[in-house]
Amino acid sequence: MSKILLVDDDTELTHLLSEVLSLSGFCVDIANNGQEALDKLKQDYSLILLDVMMPVLNGIETLKQIRQQSNIPVMMLTARGEDIDKVLGLELGADDYLPKPFNDRELVARIKAILRRSEGNYPEPAENTTTQKEDDNWLYFDELRLHTGHQQTFYKTQELFLTASEYSLLEALILSKGEPITRETLSMHVLGKPLSPFDRSIDMHMSNLRKKLPPRENRLPWFKTLRGRGYLLIRE
After folding, report:
1. What is the pTM of this model?
2. Which domains can be identified in the chain, with CATH numbers?
3. CA angle 207, 200, 82 (to 5 degrees)
4. 130/156 Cα distance (integer angstroms)
């Protein structure tokens, strides 16, 4: 059973959400501020639901500290219209965000989508000359090695600590066999939701991924942005 840490100072909301998530098959633990959430990180959680506006330590500062020690999936809960919180959260490594008020079914669906990614439930790579599949757990491209079971990414011998969304984005682009992928397709694959107008989540995850990937030996960039179309993995 997946264990979720729900972090929000609204006790009435946490009580209601705890019941909803429990009925959906999740084990739920609650923290009412960011510091309390950090103190609970020693426990093994599958995902953190993190509100932005909280006393003691707000969600943005809490996320900063979480990312210093863990790549656990994090979904931010933001006030509707607070775009700056969404952008900051994504820049700091949040996997997704959900504006309040939200539909219970959408929350559960989005949580399940993140957990599917973090647990490594991905399509099998196609056979081709550039992407090699040594066994059921490893996927190769150039000097990159992706362990699909453990959600780990390596460049040569160096481990790259990617979030679940960044990992899923990288894998989708590798599996594309050099074909462009639209932002709409990536949104469904990476975030489990349709791309909405003015939604820059995929672009923010791509920016974070680019920052974490080391320079290639052939000096080529890893990806190309296709204006109005999406993204393309650059092969040799």
Report:
1. 0.71
2. 3-119 (3.40.50.2300), 138-233 (1.10.10.10)
3. 115
4. 16
